[in-house]
Design brief:
Blueprint: H1 5-11, E1 25-29, E2 32-38, E3 48-54, H2 56-59, H3 69-86, E4 92-93, E5 107-109, E6 115-121, E7 125-126, E8 129-130, H4 132-151, H5 155-177, E9 182-185, E10 192-194, E11 197-200, E12 214-219, E13 223-230, E14 234-239, H6 245-254, E15 268-270, E16 274-277, E17 285-288, E18 306-308, H7 313-327, E19 331-335, H8 341-344, H9 348-353, H10 368-375, E20 378-382, E21 395-400, E22 403-406, H11 408-415, H12 438-441, E23 451-454, E24 458-461, E25 464-467, H13 477-492, H14 502-512, H15 517-524, H16 534-542
Parallel strand pairs: 14-20, 14-21, 16-19, 19-20
Antiparallel strand pairs: 1-2, 2-3, 3-6, 4-6, 5-6, 7-8, 9-13, 9-15, 10-11, 12-13, 17-18, 21-22, 23-24, 24-25
Helix pairs in contact: 1-4, 3-4, 3-5, 7-16, 13-16, 14-16
The structure holds adenosine-5'-diphosphate and magnesium ion.
Residues 245-246, 337 line the site of magnesium ion.
């Protein structure tokens, strides 16, 4: 690294903005190394990118804090949030994320306790001239000063975060060992401040498990924690409108991610393969085997390779289920609020009025038993409007003024009375495995394609747009970017090679993007990103309108 960035920047005062480019590279700044990675071409362009790296000695963290991957991730999230707070200018921007503890490019703690911050810097200009003294103050004083402040974390606070990381990791292991797919600790606060504010609702009703579903998990730091264990198979959440059904389901959806201490969902976890499924009319579907749900379409289309530019509510939801299973998910989460009714249920009267041979759809209610029994696929379903799932549910939870009650026994005795409904299917078969035609996606990694995330709604690759609004577990814009980069890596590095099935390509992606995955992706493009799961990547790939399947 070079010395005296401050002098260098001051000397550039008043020269043309493009000369900032000469500062690219590594500089010593107060015991840390500042790497000016990308310099914006003018003051109005997207911010420049800088990395600030503290080696083990300079970061001076307690060794136990970085002893495990989970601790390093938690600590990195804490440090990014502390840096955001310490920065007193809008010209330096760090992506500190929201309520989840995700692997992000904005801060990483190394195995040896080194720390890197990666952030955006708006290099100051006056018109098209360099404001060098201001730049020197920004990069040589403000940034290192704020970073020192972030690193000077009180021991008790850092311990709280790393112990929390231990507890959540242990909880996930114990929940899986117990054969459960989810766990909601007593006293959790599931409700959020508002539909646009993901922080916990103050003064809400704390969660309390019904006795019959309660399990106690022994955690390394928190000790014994009681909560509701969600078993495998078919779980039905019922209850009156506005009684908290969707809130419980959303907590499980979000439970695939870890949360920061104090989130209210600190000890709410869900099987890490769980996928929220919803209807999404208008989406493209490419050669998906939906025949279990859809057959004999009036168009005569082959539903074992169902392709459309414009899916209906029901066919889009069928495709989402099949694609999730193909990607390896073994837990599906469905809310009546966002589901296609005709894919969910078909009651006795409708069966009588519309003969089976006139109805292409087989409702999910007739398939979930076989999915659970024959394929170990679990479903958690919110359904307040129809009783037909009582016949096939393993357990029924009623939300009553935000309190869960186990009403399985009552539901079973009701289900014993015949409704006149006849089952429309006897078995579910796992879908045909697909192989992506690499030619159809090769444009995504050609040259300097721009990847642009539009919040959590969309992803633009050069000319193509992917609508991900209905991929509900995407947490924030950085994850959308992470999905884009993961797809680019999969294409460029040949993980999608025309031979590997979708599942095999995702296996490859998952193993390559495990430990060190963030650095790998941010080497492709220096940009704020958060690491998605394989399931979000698959969901975005499946929504690409250019996608083609081999055979
Ligand atoms: P449902 O799906 O049963 O109609 P929701 O889950 O949408 O109900 O919840 C209805 C409202 O109640 C929402 O505004 C939600 O934030 C709020 N809410 C949910 N759980 C709680 C709780 N435990 N304490 C306070 N408010 C809650
Ligand atoms: Mg609801």
């Amino acid at each position: 690294p070079r010395h005296d960035l401050s002098n260098e920047l001051t000397a550039l005062e008043g020269t043309s903005y493009g000369r900032y480019k000469s500062t690219r590279g590594k500089w010593w700044t107060k015991g840390a190394v500042l790497d000016i990675v990308k310099v914006q071409s003018d003051p109005f362009a997207p911010p420049s990118r800088v990395h600030l790296t503290f080696d083990t000695d300079a970061a001076d963290l307690i060794e136990e804090w970085h002893a495990t991957g989970e601790r390093r991730r938690a600590l990195a999230v804490l440090l990014a949030k502390r840096l955001r707070k310490a920065l007193r200018t809008r010209d330096l921007r760090i992506d500190a994320g929201g309520q989840e503890m995700l692997a992000r490019s904005s801060c990483e703690v190394g195995v040896n306790g080194s720390v890197v911050f990666r952030l955006g810097a708006q290099l100051p200009g006056r018109g098209r001239r360099i404001a060098g003294r201001e730049a020197a103050r920004l990069l040589c004083e403000e940034l290192p000063g704020a970073a020192d402040e972030a690193l000077a974390v009180a021991e008790a606070e850092a311990w709280k975060w790393v112990r929390h990381a231990d507890d959540v990791a242990a909880l996930r292991e114990k929940v899986a060992e117990a054969g459960l797919i989810g766990f909601v600790a007593d006293d959790s606060m599931l409700a959020r401040k508002s539909g646009v504010d993901d922080r916990p609702l103050a003064g809400g009703v704390p969660f309390a498990s019904p006795e019959s579903m309660a399990v106690t998990m022994d955690l390394p730091h928190a000790g014994p924690v009681r909560g509701m264990g969600v078993g495998p198979g078919v779980t039905l959440i019922v209850g009156g409108g506005f009684h908290g059904k969707s809130t419980l389901l959303r907590a499980l959806e979000s439970g695939v991610w870890d949360h920061i201490p104090g989130d209210g969902r600190d000890l709410v976890v869900c099987d890490s393969s769980a996928m929220k499924i919803r209807a999404e009319d208008g989406r493209a579907v490419t050669a998906v085997d939906v025949h279990a749900f859809v057959d004999h379409l009036p168009s005569g289309d082959d539903t074992a390779r169902f392709t459309t530019e414009n899916a209906s509510g029901s066919t889009s939801q069928a495709a989402a289920i099949v694609e999730s299973l193909e990607a390896g998910s073994r837990v599906l989460l469905i809310d009546e609020d966002t589901a296609a009714t005709n894919l969910m249920i078909r009651d006795a009267r409708m069966q009588e009025l519309v003969a089976k041979d006139r109805e292409p759809l087989t409702p999910l209610v007739d398939l979930v038993r076989s999915m659970a029994d024959d394929h170990a696929v679990s479903i958690v379903l919110v359904m307040g409007g129809s009783g037909d799932y009582m016949d096939v549910a393993d357990r029924v939870v009623m939300m009553d003024a935000y309190h869960p009650e186990d009403v399985t026994e009552r539901a079973k005795s009701l289900a014993a009375k015949p409704t006149g409904r006849v089952a429309e299917a006897d078995a579910f078969r796992l879908p045909r495995e697909r192989v992506i035609d690499p030619g159809s996606v090769s444009a995504l990694s050609r040259g300097k394609q721009k990847i642009k995330a539009d919040g959590t709604d969309g992803l633009r690759f050069g000319e193509s747009d992917v609508d991900v609004r209905s991929v509900e577990q995407i947490t924030d814009v950085s994850m959308t970017t992470g999905i884009g980069l993961a797809i680019e890596a999969a294409v460029r590095l040949g993980w999608i090679d025309g031979k590997a099935t979708v599942r095999e390509a995702l296996d490859r992606l998952e193993s390559e993007l495990g430990e060190g995955g963030v650095a790998k992706l941010s080497n492709i493009r220096d940009i704020d990103l958060a690491l998605p799961r394989r399931y979000e990547v698959a969901a975005a790939l499946n929504r690409l309108r250019e996608l083609q399947i081999r055979d």
